[in-house]
Amino acid sequence: MTSKSASHQALIWGSYDTLLADLDGVVYEGKHAIEPAPSVINGLQEAGVKVAYVTNNSSRTPETVAEQLQGFGVNTLPAQVIGSAKIGVDLLATLIPAGAKVLVVGGDGLRTAVIDAGFELVKTSDDQPAGVIQGFAPEVAWTDLAEASYAIQGGAKWVATNQDWTIPREKGMAPGNGTLVSAVHTAVGILPPVAGKPEPEIFHVAVRSTGAQKALFVGDRIDTDITGANRAGIDSVLVLTGVSGRKEVLGIKPEGRPKFIIDDLGELLKPYETPVATKRGYKCGKSLVELLGNKVMVVDGDPKSVESLRAACAVIYGSELPIYALDVETSLYQ
Known about the structure:
CATH topology of the largest domain: Rossmann fold
Number of strands: 19
CATH architecture of the largest domain: 3-Layer(aba) Sandwich
Helix content: 25-40%
CATH superfamily of the largest domain: HAD superfamily/HAD-like
Largest sheet: 6 strands, parallel
Number of domains: 3
Strand order of the largest sheet: 5-4-1-12-13-14
Distance between the termini: 44 Å
Shape: globular
Strand content: 15-25%
Order of helices and strands: HEEEHEHEHEHEEHEEEHHEHEHEEEEEHE
């Protein structure tokens, strides 16, 4: 590849020099890659696009995550993984003294981040920790949640790395850290500050670490990924390979609306079809969606296509009627 062609291809959709991506539901599900994500990411990096991963999963170290991505054939360095573990520990450090005792509910990634920050790791509430930090890990047990509850009731400051209610796995959707945080909340009667998405700081850290001039974020969850990127002032892409689906994006309120919608990461390598306003609706590619009275209808094209979904979103988002007052063609979301 010549330097001229590399320079030409070093932007996504002619505008973005950096790709920030979620992992679960975007690049992989559990132990399996989501095709064609590995080849797409490698191709973008070879063309000069900077890539980093912004993940709420704090259970593993950046080194372990990078190793998994390398196992899928994705060229990855640990420094490219921006996880909620370090962001959470940085937040906790503003609440407790340096070197204080910390009880961790979570995995190796979170424990490592706590130790690296100079805190003393303890295992039970009997050790009178000054702080509790809670993140997802498959091995978290009732006893861990109970010890965290006892410590918080004893005065420990509590921070959560994220509140994702679900996590996509290879066998299906599983409970996420939000369910575990909710269990502790039920016991202690308070809620913790949250470090990861949708809070903006983790996105800001990713932008600083990559030196991005104009970043594009791709995620599969509206409540954390898209809402968080929007809050951080970063253009967002919803990819339909994970948690949030067609019905949710059609009805989402303004704070969670993505700038772009794609079926999978392969569409990052193709020109993006943007909806264009017509007399009564929007046209996108071969699809035409119109608002006829209060009915959102596909007048032309395949209702199941991503182009129809984009056009329908444009119609709904631009309508003066709230979503509950609209009669949306069911083929758009079923």
